[in-house]
Design a protein that fits this description.
The chain contains ten helices and ten strands. The protein is an alpha+beta fold. Helix 2 packs parallel to helix 3. The termini are far apart. It is an enzyme of class 2 (transferase). Belongs to the GHMP kinase family. IspE subfamily. Keywords: ATP-binding, Isoprene biosynthesis, Kinase, Nucleotide-binding, Transferase.
């Protein structure tokens, strides 16, 4: 069902920040088909929000710009929020804890299937919110197992701080000195199939991410480092979705100091020197393409 999200109606509100792949390099493929990645990830202060409250029966409600796109899968019990709830409940009860019924509300502000981890962020926020509501603290191994069942991006979304992830996303190194960036997110609201993008990769054994973890908290140095990296999924995604090239070019014309696609697309980001510049750019882009998605935001800095 669709309702207006009022934070005061819930016991807890959990943020689900957008995940931004500042760089993504495909370094191999396992025998089971999973691709091996090296990715530099940060998180935006803009994202979805979830509310949690005790209930007589399990409920799930939706609001937000992109909530209509999730209505069918929610009715079918196929949403990652519901899968996260069920997996955590099973783990809690196996360990002898109560996991009573809950009403979860998802305010869906991020485009769906857009390369910025919306579903994974929602799943991670569900795990965090329910641990608080139910008063449980599963082991890190249990949480990692649950997260990986939900998707390769969920472990990093549980952290929601700047990091480098390797393997299939389970090997995480935090970047405590990573700075915050002003950013514009853009999406042409065209769906891109992640399996198709991977299938069109020219090679799957690219060099690993070459990046020093000891870099100072300096915007200019980090921007230069980011500009020297790449997203191996961007060229194949562009062949599937012509709008990605147009979007990237539009963001560049607004004065972005670096522009790239995130994840498997079609969301692209532009880094700006100041938030006011990003806000002006987002407003200008919206006037040029009011049918597309644009959002000015800042990223979350490391926890040094």
């Amino acid at each position: 069902m669709h309702v207006i999200f009022a934070a005061g109606d819930f016991n807890f509100v959990q943020e689900a920040p957008a995940k931004i792949n500042l760089a993504l390099q495909v370094t191999g493929q396992r025998a089971d088909g999973y691709h091996l990645l090296d990715t530099l990830v940060t998180f935006a202060r803009h994202g979805d929000r979830l509310g949690f409250r005790a209930s007589h029966r399990d409920e799930f409600s939706l609001s937000g710009r992109f909530s209509p796109l999730l209505a069918d899968e929610a009715d079918a019990g196929d949403n990652l929020v519901l899968k996260a709830r069920d997996l955590l409940r099973q783990a809690a009860r196996t360990a002898g804890f109560e996991a009573p019924p809950v009403h979860i509300h998802l305010e869906k502000n991020l485009p769906v299937a857009s390369g910025i981890g919306g579903g994974s962020a929602d799943a991670a926020a569900t795990l965090g919110g329910l641990m608080r509501l139910w008063g449980i603290a599963p082991s890190s191994d249990t949480m990692m197992a649950i997260a990986l069942k939900l998707g390769a991006d969920v472990p990093m979304c549980l952290v929601s701080r700047p990091l480098i992830a390797r393997g299939i996303g389970e090997t995480i190194e935090l970047l405590p000195h990573f700075p915050s960036f002003a950013m514009v997110l853009g999406n042409p609201l065209v769906s891109v199939s992640t399996p198709e993008v991977f299938s069109l990769l020219a090679r799957k054994d690219n060099p690993a991410l070459a990046l020093s973890l000891q870099m100072p908290n300096d915007h200019a140095q980090w921007i230069e480092a980011i500009k020297g990296l790449r997203n191996d999924l961007e060229p194949p995604a562009r062949t599937l979705c012509n709008e990605i090239a147009t979007l990237s070019q539009l963001i560049e014309t607004q004065g972005a100091v670096a522009t790239r696609m995130s994840g498997s697309g079609a969301t692209c980001f532009g880094l700006f020197d100041h938030l006011e510049q990003a806000k002006a750019a987002a407003a200008s882009l919206h006037s040029l393409r009011p049918d597309w998605y644009f959002q000015a935001t800042e990223t979350i800095k490391g926890d040094a």
